[in-house]
Amino acid sequence: MKTAVWAACLLLLASALPPAADAARRPHRVARHAAHQPVQPAAAPQPLHVTIMDGDSGAILHCEDCNAPMPPASMSKLMTALIVGDALLQHRITLDTRYHVSENAWRHGAMSDGSHMFLELNSEVSIRDLIQGVIVVSANDACIVLAEGLAGSESAFVALMNRRAQELGLRSAHFTNATGLPDPNHVISSADLARLARYLVANHPELYRLYGERAFTYNGHTQENRNPLLGTVAGADGLKTGHTDDSGFGLVGSAVQNGHRRILVFNGLRSMADRREAGINLMRAAFEQYATQRIARRGQQLGEAQVYLGSRATAPLVAQNDIVVGGPQAVLAGLRTHVVYAGPLRAPIAQGQVVAQLVVEGPGLQTKRFPLVSGQRIGGANWFAKAWEGLRVTFSGAH
């Protein structure tokens, strides 16, 4: 059953057919209809693994199987670009650094059936051109050249990708190559792709501007950016498309409207036309139908917890981080919050120690829990207070 929000944001397509080339690669079963039965209109494209994220706070606004690992195809090139961006920030390379196009990169990139930027065997190419090739036209040959140049081999570069994914907390991610070419162990969830995209936007502005470029010319060949949001959705400025027979057509998209950023990820569509339709409608819905609500700021006190045998009787409970909840606008109007902890707390308690949770719930919203910490250090009670407490417990329990 499709969710109500999906039905609300997509229009029915009367006669959308996949391009002939795609149909040839991906044969599909055609239903047989009796002569007197009318053919029903084609359903609107239904993507898989949908994530809509608030790019400002990182709050997930909408999730459809968004935490399940999936084959990302070329969308995983976001991590390839991030590794290059890190090296630039660390001054290990510059945009003018040149890398050699090996036979391996040429044969498995430029001579492959996948996307490439027409690199020539044994040529020397600048990082500036290579990273544009990766970001704008999804060039596999550029990915391999960068991997070999930065790490010595693609396998060593993949180790850097996986290590970086762990550092960023992308728990679903496991990469086996720098290109996104099919491999059953090359996976990441759409939610983690959204987190990766958000990190790129915030920490690599010098590279992020390339994601909005509409075309790239190299070696006499001009290729267009395949991102269907660019030029069609107001404020769209990135990020990356992906497609293999295993993954279908997917998109990591981002746009800014009225000072607010939304990040969209989905996968599993059968054609570029379907990807365009779904991408435009979902991104528009992301701004029109979803919102965020700030519950508390980092360090804000939200309650107190009883303390047993402490230097004070209660511990102030404060938000460990900003607490922001996102979702459909109608759902946010009915939010409820309450504090839970296993009490009384036992001293000593360190300042910043997680001791409780703020529970946020409401009709139509999956219950969310956020850590609360002690706002100050609380030492143990002195011997007199402990003795007095012992006497109190003893006599209060006597009959």
Structure at a glance:
The protein contains twelve helices and 17 strands.
Report on this structure.
The protein has 399 residues and is of the alpha+beta class. It folds into two domains: 248 residues, Beta-lactamase, CATH 3.40.710; 103 residues, D-Ala-D-Ala carboxypeptidase, C-terminal domain (Peptidoglycan synthesis regulatory factor (PBP3), Domain 2, Sandwich), CATH 2.60.410.10. 40% of the residues are buried. The strands form five sheets. It has a six-stranded mixed β-sheet, with no helix packed on it. The radius of gyration is 26 Å and the shape is globular. The protein is built from twelve helices and 17 strands. The N terminus is likely disordered.
List keywords for this structure.
399 residues, disordered N terminus, six-stranded mixed β-sheet, single chain, five-stranded antiparallel β-sheet, Beta-lactamase, 31% helix, alpha+beta, Peptidoglycan synthesis regulatory factor (PBP3), Domain 2, 2 domains
Q: Please indicate the count of domains.
A: 2
Mean pLDDT: 88
Q: Which quaternary structure do these chains form?
A: single chain
Shape: globular
CA-based gyration radius: 26 Å
CATH topology-level fold name of the largest domain: Beta-lactamase
Strands across the major sheet, in which order? 14-16-17-12-11-15
* Strands, total number: 17
